[in-house]
């Protein structure tokens, strides 16, 4: 069967050929050889020019480079015709040549170490260049030459007693093994090359014109298989049968491939190539679907071996394309469906036909798994790419197409769900909706909008989604709502929790603090989060942080600090948010754990800016801690009330420094601002805080800065009063207001509040509008110690009661003196504060509604 | 003022019959000569009661709407139908009501419902249908506006029926009937029953619990503001965690009523400790819910206790007074509220200030100077504040003695002995 025949009726021709081939191997072989030579002749001319040009290019340098334009242009015209030729081909060839050169150099000085390295490189490049299944000629030549040289060396080695040094010996061995393997792969070409060097080098290099591509490819494989048979092993096909690609034989091939799946020594790339061919010959939708399904899974298998490596880019793209094709096919042929529960069709000879009373031809396969896998692979590859390169951004653009695929998948499942007889599992729909949600939740509304618009464009016209009708989801917030509500209603457990977290995250991102907070509290996730898987815990942490940042943007310093405390106070933000691996000093991490941790890392574009986070956290801590420090002053229970340990430690460290230079990083800025604030120099403090550059990353920077100035003014006033109250008898409100540039009324309000909360022993004189400080309120050391002692005693009793209560499992109601907790149930928060809150002296700060008692953190790290 | 009108929000959580007094009240607020408005209210009443069986009243409403002299004929038909149904129901239930009226039967009833039914079946040939007829009849009576009869029937039904859903419905029905007959003691008892059934039966369905509690809270407003004796009990109910959560989640506007009733209850509560605690709670919740709901009453609380802005508090107080006067539930307590609020203002004002200008304080309380002076004198006498009036200067001088350390230590350790005793007793058990 030669290419000249294919102009006519290829199918009948090939089938007859096939019979022939089955009947006699010999014949097939002969034929194959004949084909080869035929081809060679016909394309001789074309290739000559091509290989020449590439040769030339390899040697060129300097000024000659400018001539390339011309050259490549002529190449381009070639390429127009030849579909498989890539524009980067020249470059690759050039690289190949240089590598071969390097190998030759290595040979000259007998440096096997470098030869081995270069050879590895060569193999990699060759596989890239030879995408169409044809390795480049120069590669084959290099291969053969290297093999010869190697054999020579080995034989020399045997004769001479002089030993090689270790590196060389190792290199030699490595090359030896690799060559064996590679030559096996390219046996045909190598043989051809050996047979007639010149002829081979001249022979065709590129794939032939698309029109005749299929049958030609067939040829190559026919001979490949035949040759393989001769060698006594077979990678494809069974028991000495040669492979032939016709629509009829598709299933046979597929079966062969399926059977070899997962086995050792299967060349997956090879199989993929075969299937690509199969797809192009497949005529009926059933065949197309089957081929595509197997093809996609084979592509995924490529990366299955080493979990650390990600799928090659071109394979990912191809897989994405295949899935899209699959959707096209399925859309065109509504009577075919891909269905998880379908039965395997055993008969290869007869494709299944539509039975009476059945609406569909069911093909087994799981589209949702493919989509999930595709998604995971993208994430994996994003993890491995350096985020600061343009490569990352290029790769990121693929997310758009991935989103489209997910969207199509969702539409497809909705379509299946419409027919209740199919009993499509709810789970699949949930999974796909969840994936969609996970691609949306962390993005600003504008981005989501663009994503959505593109997705709707790819959908076939007239398709309407039942879950997310186009009209309803035009707005990103609505989309999130619709998706999340769907999951709330239809799913449970982890997916529901994740949906909830996603929605909270989105709300927090869009400055809907109260809604986000209420949802967070009502979800009760902080109680159960420890029992979820690590990924969900990470999502929880991320959401928590986002809620905290949102509170800060709203100017709710106390809430922000409280929310961020758990994550930022731990000093392990990086780990908790899965944005980098921390080097652990004390704990030994097994490689297995490390690998898992690496896998969990989020791709860079999803990161929350850690520096900004730290900055917000420290600023909030400053605003709360500085007045507190001033208030507690020198009393003996200073140690008791610490809001943020991390902040305290930093402050202490900063104060110990003998010389302090101008602030350099965020932390320095906040620390110096703190010192200024503590000294009552609020203006200086504001300057320090304002000069932090990272505020620019926040939306509405000016607003944030004004908010901070206001807060600093107020806290400055409080700090001032706490610090200097003992030195004054009276203090005019107007003095204070001019000192802190606040309104009289505001000052009066702040002072009143302090008096009312018994923070300040003073009273206001309304007539003269002054603050009168009371005398004799300072406690002696004995008195304050007595107070502390009484507190401790009270605590002891409390602890005893609680212990007993735990032991008796709630039967000891006798201790619940105050009825029930103030605020349990749906709002979570108060549970803890309930008991201690009533006693004033306890010094517990009750968080009201915003105390997330998650504790999700430790577990999130430990895994 | 219209923006603070809660009627539209309340209506969604009340029964038709319970809404009627509210609408009636709103209609009375409208000036007599505003015909269009009056007509509108009549229409509202008509729409509201259209589906009930109070045919006479609906008929007259309709007549008023259409400007007729007497009710249209269709209402006569309807009336006849209702009457005949009434008779039919009476027939059906006469037997069982008779039985329940007889002493020897009632004496034989036990607390076990199943056994009761069995007993009645055996002795007096009562079927389950008869019992259910009681329920239907009760429902019908209620619809006719015969609340007392409905209450009685539903009570009888509840004694006998074993159908949990119907019993729950009957309890709600009885609660409504008791409210409408202004039988507050009974109503509060029913309230407790409903609450228990919500806690118990709907345990697995948080959403239904939330909805039912929301309803219950709204219904409870009737007894809360009409009966002093049960007020403490109801306030405790409102402040219990599940209910306060419900208020925060689904109906924050109830905060107005809660705040008003706490503030008004100033002089009434048994212990000042409890009052302080309630006040603290309400301040906290008002603060938390400020983003969701504000009105002059909550704003007053906020200005006074969170922002310490006395001028603002005064402003809000006068606004709140107007609100209270146009609110169905609060109108009767408006005076008391303003009085109590003034007390609160002056209390915290005196706490913070050492010397106060009487003139200024009077202005803050919305009183004239003489009145203000009298007020302060009363205040000093009532609350035993350590203060003196300097008549020449026109000021009040407060004397805040610092709390003694020894006193503090004593306070803190006071309960320790008792608690330890309880503890050791519990361990010994």
From TrEMBL, chain A:
GO terms for cellular component: eukaryotic 43S preinitiation complex; eukaryotic 48S preinitiation complex; eukaryotic translation initiation factor 3 complex. Residues 604-778 form the PCI domain. The keyword Hydrolase does not apply. Residues 1-88, 802-863 are annotated as: Disordered. One of its GO terms (molecular function) is translation initiation factor activity. It is found in: Cytoplasm. Keywords: Cytoplasm, Initiation factor, Protein biosynthesis. Residues 15-29, 36-56 have a biased composition (Acidic residues). It comes from the Eukaryota. GO terms for biological process: formation of cytoplasmic translation initiation complex. It holds the Pfam family PCI. Residues 825-857 have a biased composition (Gly residues). PROSITE patterns: PCI. Component of the eukaryotic translation initiation factor 3 (eIF-3) complex. Component of the eukaryotic translation initiation factor 3 (eIF-3) complex, which is involved in protein synthesis of a specialized repertoire of mRNAs and, together with other initiation factors, stimulates binding of mRNA and methionyl-tRNAi to the 40S ribosome. The eIF-3 complex specifically targets and initiates translation of a subset of mRNAs involved in cell proliferation. PANTHER family: EUKARYOTIC TRANSLATION INITATION FACTOR 3, SUBUNIT 8 EIF3S8 -RELATED, EUKARYOTIC TRANSLATION INITIATION FACTOR 3 SUBUNIT C-RELATED. Belongs to the eIF-3 subunit C family. This is Eukaryotic translation initiation factor 3 subunit C. It comes from Neoarthrinium moseri.
TrEMBL record, chain B:
InterPro entries: eIF3e, eIF3e_N, PCI_dom, WH_DNA-bd_sf. GO terms for biological process: formation of cytoplasmic translation initiation complex. One of its GO terms (molecular function) is translation initiation factor activity. It holds the Pfam family EIF3E_C. It is found in: Cytoplasm. Keywords: Cytoplasm, Initiation factor, Protein biosynthesis. GO terms for cellular component: eukaryotic 43S preinitiation complex; eukaryotic 48S preinitiation complex; eukaryotic translation initiation factor 3 complex, eIF3e. PROSITE patterns: PCI. Its main location: cytoplasm. Residues 223-403 form the PCI domain. The keyword Calcium does not apply. CDD domains: eIF3E. It comes from the Eukaryota. Component of the eukaryotic translation initiation factor 3 (eIF-3) complex, which is involved in protein synthesis of a specialized repertoire of mRNAs and, together with other initiation factors, stimulates binding of mRNA and methionyl-tRNAi to the 40S ribosome. The eIF-3 complex specifically targets and initiates translation of a subset of mRNAs involved in cell proliferation. Component of the eukaryotic translation initiation factor 3 (eIF-3) complex. Belongs to the eIF-3 subunit E family. This is Eukaryotic translation initiation factor 3 subunit E.
């Amino acid at each position: 069967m030669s290419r000249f025949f294919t102009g006519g009726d290829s199918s009948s021709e090939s089938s007859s050929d096939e019979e022939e081939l089955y009947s006699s191997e010999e014949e097939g072989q002969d034929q194959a050889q004949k084909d080869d030579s035929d081809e060679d002749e016909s394309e001789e001319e074309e290739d000559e020019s091509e290989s020449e040009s590439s040769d030339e290019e390899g040697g060129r340098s300097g000024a000659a480079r400018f001539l390339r334009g011309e050259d490549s242009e002529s190449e381009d015209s070639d390429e127009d015709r030849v579909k498989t030729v890539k524009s980067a081909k020249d470059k690759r060839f050039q690289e190949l040549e240089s590598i071969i050169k390097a190998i030759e150099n290595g040979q000259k000085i007998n440096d096997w170490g470098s030869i081995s390295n270069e050879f590895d490189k060569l193999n990699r490049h060759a596989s890239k260049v030879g995408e169409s299944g044809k390795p480049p000629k120069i590669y084959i030549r290099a291969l053969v030459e290297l093999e010869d040289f190697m054999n020579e060396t080995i034989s020399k080695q045997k004769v001479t007693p002089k030993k090689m040094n270790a590196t060389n010996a190792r290199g030699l061995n490595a090359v030896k093994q690799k060559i064996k393997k590679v030559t096996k792969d390219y046996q045909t070409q190598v043989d051809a090359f050996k047979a007639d060097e010149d002829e081979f080098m001249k022979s065709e290099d590129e794939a032939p014109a698309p029109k005749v591509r299929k049958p030609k490819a067939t040829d190559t494989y026919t001979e490949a298989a035949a040759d393989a048979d001769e060698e006594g092993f077979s990678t494809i096909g069974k028991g000495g049968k040669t492979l032939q690609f016709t629509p009829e034989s598709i299933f046979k091939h597929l079966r062969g491939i399926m059977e070899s799946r997962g086995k050792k020594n299967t060349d997956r790339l090879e199989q993929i190539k075969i299937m690509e061919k199969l797809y192009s010959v497949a005529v009926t939708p059933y065949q197309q679907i089957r081929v595509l399904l197997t093809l996609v899974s084979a592509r995924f298998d490529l990366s299955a071996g080493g979990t650390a490596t990600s799928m090659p880019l071109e394979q990912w793209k191809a897989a994405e394309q295949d899935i899209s094709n699959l959707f096209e096919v399925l859309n065109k042929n509504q009577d075919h469906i891909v269905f998880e529960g379908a039965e395997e069709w055993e008969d290869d000879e007869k494709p299944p036909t539509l039975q009476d009373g059945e609406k569909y031809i069911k093909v087994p396969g799981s589209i949702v798994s493919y989509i999930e896998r595709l998604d995971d692979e993208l994430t994996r590859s994003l993890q491995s790419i350096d985020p600061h390169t343009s490569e990352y951004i290029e790769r990121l653009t693929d997310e758009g197409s991935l989103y489209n695929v997910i969207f199509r998948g969702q539409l497809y499942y909705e379509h299946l769900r419409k027919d209740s007889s199919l009993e499509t599992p709810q789970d699949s729909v949930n999974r796909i909706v969840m994936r969609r949600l996970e691609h949306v939740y962390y993005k600003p509304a504008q981005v989501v909008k663009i994503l959505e618009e593109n997705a709707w464009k790819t959908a076939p016209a007239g398709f309407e989604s039942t879950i997310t009708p186009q009209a309803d989801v035009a707005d990103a917030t609505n989309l999130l709502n619709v998706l999340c509500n769907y999951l709330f209603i239809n799913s449970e457990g982890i997916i529901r929790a994740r949906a909830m977290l996603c929605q909270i995250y989105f709300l927090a991102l869009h400055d809907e603090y109260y809604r986000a907070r209420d949802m967070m509290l009502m979800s009760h996730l902080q109680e159960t989060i420890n029992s979820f898987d690590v990924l969900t815990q990470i999502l929880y942490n991320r959401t928590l942080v986002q809620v905290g940042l949102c509170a800060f943007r709203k100017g709710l310093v106390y809430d922000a600090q409280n929310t961020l405390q758990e994550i930022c106070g731990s000093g392990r933000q990086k780990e908790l948010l899965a944005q980098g691996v921390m080097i652990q000093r004390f704990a030994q991490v097994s490689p297995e754990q490390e690998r898992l941790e690496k896998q969990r890392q989020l791709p860079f574009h999803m990161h929350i800016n850690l520096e900004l986070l730290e900055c917000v956290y420290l600023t909030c801590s400053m605003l709360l801690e500085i007045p507190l420090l001033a208030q507690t002053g020198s009393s003996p229970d200073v140690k008791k009330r610490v809001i943020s340990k991390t902040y305290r430690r930093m402050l202490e460290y900063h104060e110990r420094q003998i010389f302090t230079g101008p602030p350099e990083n965020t932390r320095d800025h906040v620390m110096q601002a703190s010192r200024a604030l503590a000294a009552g120099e609020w203006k200086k403090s504001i300057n320090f805080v304002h000069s932090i550059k990272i505020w620019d990353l926040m939306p509405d920077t000016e607003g944030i800065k004004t908010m901070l100035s206001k807060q600093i003014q107020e806290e400055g006033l409080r700090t001032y009063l706490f610090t200097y109250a003992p030195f004054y008898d009276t203090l005019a409100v107007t003095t204070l207001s001019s000192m802190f540039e606040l309104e009289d009324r505001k000052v009066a309000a702040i002072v009143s509040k302090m008096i009312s909360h018994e923070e300040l022993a003073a009273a206001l004189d309304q007539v003269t509008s002054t603050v009168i400080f009371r005398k004799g309120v300072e406690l002696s050391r004995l008195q304050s110690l007595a107070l502390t002692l009484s507190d401790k005693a009270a605590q002891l009793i409390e602890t005893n009661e609680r212990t007993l209560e735990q032991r008796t499992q709630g039967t000891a109601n006798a201790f619940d003196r105050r009825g029930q907790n103030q605020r349990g149930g749906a709002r979570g928060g108060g549970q803890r504060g309930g008991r201690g809150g009533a006693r004033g002296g306890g010094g517990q700060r009750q968080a009201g509604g915003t105390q997330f008692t998650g504790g999700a953190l430790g577990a999130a790290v430990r895994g | 003022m219209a923006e603070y009108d809660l009627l539209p929000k309340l209506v969604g959580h009340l029964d038709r019959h319970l809404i009627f007094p509210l609408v009636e009240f709103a209609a009375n607020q409208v000036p007599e000569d505003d015909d269009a408005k009056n007509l509108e209210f009549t229409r509202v009443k008509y729409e509201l009661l259209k589906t009930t069986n109070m045919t006479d009243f609906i008929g007259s409403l309709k007549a008023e709407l259409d400007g007729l002299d007497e009710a249209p004929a269709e209402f006569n038909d309807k009336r006849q139908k209702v009457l005949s149904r009434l008779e039919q129901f009476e027939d059906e239930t006469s037997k069982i009501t008779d039985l329940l009226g007889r002493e020897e039967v009632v004496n034989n009833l036990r607390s076990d419902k199943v056994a009761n039914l069995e007993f009645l079946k055996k002795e007096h040939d009562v079927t389950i249908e008869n019992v259910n007829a009681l329920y239907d009849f009760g429902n019908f009576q209620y619809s006719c506006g015969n609340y007392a009869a409905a209450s009685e029937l539903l009570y009888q039904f509840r004694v006998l029926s074993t159908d949990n859903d119907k019993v729950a419905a009957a309890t709600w029905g009885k609660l409504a009937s008791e409210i409408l007959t202004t039988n507050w003691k009974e109503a509060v008892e029913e309230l407790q029953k409903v609450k228990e059934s919500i806690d118990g039966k709907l345990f697995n369905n948080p959403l239904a619990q939330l909805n039912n509690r929301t309803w219950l809270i709204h219904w409870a407003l009737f007894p809360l503001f009409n009966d002093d004796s049960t007020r403490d009990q109801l306030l405790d109910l409102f402040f219990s965690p599940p209910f306060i959560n419900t208020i925060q989640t689904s109906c924050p506007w109830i905060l107005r009523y809660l705040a008003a009733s706490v503030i008004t209850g100033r002089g009434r509560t048994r212990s000042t400790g409890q009052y302080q605690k309630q006040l603290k709670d309400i301040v906290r919740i008002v603060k938390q819910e400020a983003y969701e709901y504000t009105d002059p009453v909550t704003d007053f609380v906020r200005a006074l206790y969170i922002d310490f802005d006395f001028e603002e508090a005064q402003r809000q107080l006068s606004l709140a007074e107007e609100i209270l006067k146009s609110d169905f539930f609060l109108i009767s307590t408006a005076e008391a509220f303003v009085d109590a609020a003034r007390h609160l203002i002056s209390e915290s004002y005196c706490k913070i200030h050492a010397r106060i200008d009487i003139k200024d304080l009077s202005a803050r309380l919305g009183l004239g100077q003489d009145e203000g002076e009298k007020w302060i004198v009363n205040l000093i006498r009532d609350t035993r504040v350590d203060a003196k009036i300097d008549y020449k200067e026109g000021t009040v001088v407060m004397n805040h003695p610092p709390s003694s350390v020894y006193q503090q230590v004593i306070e803190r350790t006071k309960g320790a002995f008792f608690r330890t005793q309880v503890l050791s007793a519990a361990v010994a058990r």
